[in-house]
Amino acid sequence: MRVVLFAEEPDWHCRRLIRACSRRGARVTVASLADCAFRIGAGAGAVGIDIPDFDGVLPELALVRTIPNGSFEQVTFRLALLHALQTLGVRVVNDARAIERCVDKSMTSFLLHHAGIPTPPTLVTEHPDAAASWQATQDADLVAKPLFGAQGRGLRRIAAGEAPPDPAELAGVLYLQRYVGRASEWRDYRVFVIGGMAIAAMMRRGAGWITNVARGGTCEAMRCDGRLGALAVAATRTVGADYSGVDLIENDSGELVVLEVNSMPAWKGLQGVADIDIAEAIAAHVVAA
Ligand SMILES: Nc1ncnc2c1ncn2[C@@H]1O[C@H](COP(=O)(O)OP(=O)(O)O)[C@@H](O)[C@H]1O
Ligand SMILES: [Mg+2]
To answer: For the segment 109-166, what is each residue's pLDDT rounded down to a tens digit?
Structure first.
């Protein structure tokens, strides 16, 4: 089985995925989506898509570890390549639609709510006036998040009464969410879901309210059964992801709510406390025996 692993550099995650897939007989080639092309017209091969080192042959599986950031045009093109691979019968994991739904935090929030999965009250708007009048109804701190944010970057906590940021500071879209965390001893949960099953979970404790491992959050293993696992599995199904890293937090009433679903999750922090090998579990799910 030929596999393309879309990534920018063969990092820790890639090395583990390559090892796990190779053990199952797959031949894995790492390539960047930025180096692929559509080739259409006379003289072009039947495939229509160039992937470095594939010489006009299609892989059976495309594993998407990362999509490089870029202009709106670049990202649209890179996603189009993934959609096109699917059209040609390549299994793409996670598929382009799931990635689009997860990268856009507004769509994730909408889908979670639509599926009846608890998630904090959220307003996404381009209009400061709408943001201000919604804020007046919340009686709580808010969190402003970049729509395409990751790893806790660019988050801002806004005290009740403090003005929300100017949309221009957030690429024109205000994603505002009710702050539902604690006043101290901050913690939330990360659950890894593969193939409809929660396979590992951890509690993240933060030195501040942003608990991402990339921001210094520390990891503690958790059981992934019960409501924690069930909500993570439901959230993953809702966005249509084959595997994901789901963030959950306890709200002011002590109920678990889903913050977001990551369709290209890192798992180094979780692997440090998990008793299952996560790359092996992904490979077992995607590589035919
Ligand atoms: N509404 C919220 N209430 C309390 N804490 C939050 C809220 N939203 C995010 N956080 C904290 O910030 C972290 C990052 O937020 P998240 O939505 O997961 O974005 P990112 O994509 O940057 O990880 C969460 O893991 C949590 O610790
Ligand atoms: Mg997160």
So the answer is: 999 999 999 999 999 999 999 999 999 999 899 999 999 999 999 999 999 989 999 9
The pick from 142, 155, 187, 256 for probing ligand 1's pocket by mutation, whose C-beta has the most ligand atoms within 8 angstroms, reads: 155
In short, whether 177's Cβ falls inside 6 Å of ligand 1 is yes
Protein residue with its CA nearest to atom 7 in ligand 1: 179
Question: pLDDT tier at 225 (50, 70, 90 boundaries)?
Answer: very high
- At the topology level, CATH places domain 2-93 in Rossmann fold (3.40.50)
Does residue 150 have its Cβ closer than 6 Å to ligand 1?
yes
CATH topology of domain 122-178: Dna Ligase; domain 1 (3.30.1490)
Say how many Å lie between the CA of residue 3 and the centre of ligand 2.
28
Extract long-range pairs of 52-58: CB within 8 Å, 24+ residues apart.
Answer: 53/29, 54/2, 54/4, 54/29, 57/2, 58/85, 58/88, 58/89, 58/90
DSSP label at 264?
S
CA 214 to ligand 1 centroid distance, Å: 12
Q: Which CATH number is 183-286 given?
A: 3.30.470.20
Per the structure block, which two tokens stand in for 77? 């093109």
